Amino acid sequence: MDKQIDQSTTNPQASRKSTGLRQVAAVAGVSTATVSRVLNNPESVSEGLRTRVLMVIDQLGWVPNAAARALSSNRTGAIGAIFPALGVGDFARAIDAMQDALAARNYLLLLARSRYDAALELVQARKLVERGVDGLILVGSTRSQDYEQFLRRLSIPYINSFVFDADSAIPCVGPDNARAMAEMVDYLVSLGHRRFGMIAQTNRNNDRAAARRDGVRDALARYGLAIPPQAMVEGEWSIAEGRKLLRQVLATSPRPTAIICGNALLAIGAVLEAAEMHIVLPRDLSIVGYDDTELMSELPQPITTVRVASDRVGKLAADLIVDMLEGQTSVSGARIPSEIVVRSTTGPAPQD
Amino acid sequence: MDKQIDQSTTNPQASRKSTGLRQVAAVAGVSTATVSRVLNNPESVSEGLRTRVLMVIDQLGWVPNAAARALSSNRTGAIGAIFPALGVGDFARAIDAMQDALAARNYLLLLARSRYDAALELVQARKLVERGVDGLILVGSTRSQDYEQFLRRLSIPYINSFVFDADSAIPCVGPDNARAMAEMVDYLVSLGHRRFGMIAQTNRNNDRAAARRDGVRDALARYGLAIPPQAMVEGEWSIAEGRKLLRQVLATSPRPTAIICGNALLAIGAVLEAAEMHIVLPRDLSIVGYDDTELMSELPQPITTVRVASDRVGKLAADLIVDMLEGQTSVSGARIPSEIVVRSTTGPAPQD
DNA sequence: TTGTAAGCGTTATCAA
DNA sequence: TTGATAACGCTTACAA
């Protein structure tokens, strides 16, 4: 009796440890090294042993312990990404694509959110590094000194996304925000517009928004034009703000004939508010946005906007960082092209 | 000279290993156990040593290695969550709140996406468990046999979110989907509606959508009413589908006077399409949605809908799973209340 | 309150 | 191709 009861506890093989690589090795009658090789370097094991080990693994239902693996190999197979927001337009699409691309190459995506807060972003980066991510995907390219220093000391690769700078020392994957906006300005000027307003996305810790604003400013300057300070306002990311800010911009005199919005929701808000003010687009006013979400084309008045293939940003960023880790020779960034999608909110400038 | 130059490389202390807990201990003149305690159980260390150790940690810029920690303690401090989609309405809000709540309690959120695919969800769950998550937050409560078995064998806790079932053996945090819809039906019936149509979200691997549909059906049955098969259609999650399906439902005869949509985008599409068909809401037709995104109230015609505090779902789910891990006594689920938000798309049923 | 030292479950080096 | 065995960087009995 006693013996039977105690068996599971006293039997050294059974009791010592739950199923682990050691147990697999014991049952298969091979060394632990061989089991490990079957997983990480199957070609280096003879076929006979390989199939035998795989059978035992399956039979025992063994699942390797990621922590032990990470500790021993100094790699986790996880990539960290820090986004200002996760559920928002282009980021959401990029994240989906990124996750798929990483999964396809057997990496896990660890997501963090910085809320457009520089200090929080550094905290998040630290946490991800603690977790042992093998690489880091960041958004933008402008950072604090502390942050720069932290990154430089890192022994893991990282890249910038949603920006593109050919001269950057670290790889970038994204659109050229300034250029995209410059193209939009070219288009509007070609329609005869000379008086502009802008409902920009706030610049706070957002170099993409800043680049878009600069792109507009510089492009206008090339035509000898400028946006008067009162007609240049900023908001975050909401329809309500777009509505409010449109009224603000239209209150300036002389009234702009074209208004450039810094993101999709601001543009939607502006267009909806214009309708409520009985302003007819594009007869009385042209409005454009940035980012081409489903809403931009499905609302009663489809909105002219800049389209960036965010899913390509995500996929390429993921592939790039993995390439860097796996020692590909040619790892450089990529400029994701942007295009102007002309819809019904833009037309010739009204005659004075 | 030589000595100075070589110091950093030959000094055994400096060269042997990069900064680790051992080095911190050496520099602070304490044992490794004390350093560990300072991090994990600060009260058990005298104040003098504690501050000394903390200074050294800061000075050396030491970052603990999560893998080693996990291996040694058998806890990772990570919670896994699997959502059908990440960037969509209520899930996006819940994820944000979840992440904040977990961070506040020093846990990391590991996100995975199942795309409403049952097989993929099980794969994701396996991966998260391999990674060593301490707990799992799932969406819904209906799963395949394999999946159920996998979860039962797990030694870590898990919970269901976005559903509520008081009788469930495992904790649920979410709204009562059926009840929310039943309340909507009560409201519409009280307005005199008797002929209903439904643009449901597809049921495929989505027990929330199924519950909402059942909720509508059962509530109508209590009034002796039913939706004819042709007036019951389903779509995924897009404005375009909402538009198309509205036409389909309105083509049935007799024409419904009230149409219930299974999610926000379907409702928005239906309302926009109605406007294009010159159908005046709510005079000619009432339309309601589910989920209260910003768009539901900001579009030209604000839409009557069900509001669920998704951020509370996220926060409570996070707190609940951590409570379970930290051995709180009373861990039970929570029903998150829902409410009907009446806007301009609903009114008395038109007279025949 | 503090220290000693034995793991935790893998990988990877070296020999065979 | 395979096997022994020493790390990997922490946590945690147990002892002092």
Automatic annotation (TrEMBL), chains A, B:
Pfam families registered for this protein in UniProt: LacI (PF00356), Peripla_BP_3 (PF13377)
Keyword Iron-sulfur attached: no
Superkingdom per UniProt: Bacteria
Region feature Disordered, mapped onto this chain: 1-21
A GO MF label: transcription cis-regulatory region binding
Family annotation (SUPFAM superfamilies): lambda repressor-like DNA-binding domains, Periplasmic binding protein-like I
UniProt keyword DNA damage present: no
Domain HTH lacI-type: 19-73
UniProt-listed Gene3D superfamilies: 3.40.50.2300, lambda repressor-like DNA-binding domains
CDD domains: HTH_LacI, PBP1_LacI-like
Keywords annotated in UniProt: DNA-binding, Transcription, Transcription regulation
PANTHER family, A to Z: LACI-RELATED TRANSCRIPTIONAL REPRESSOR, TRANSCRIPTIONAL REGULATORY PROTEIN
Name under which the protein is recorded: LacI family DNA-binding transcriptional regulator
Organism, scientific name: Paracoccus haeundaensis
Lineage: Bacteria, Pseudomonadati, Pseudomonadota, Alphaproteobacteria, Rhodobacterales
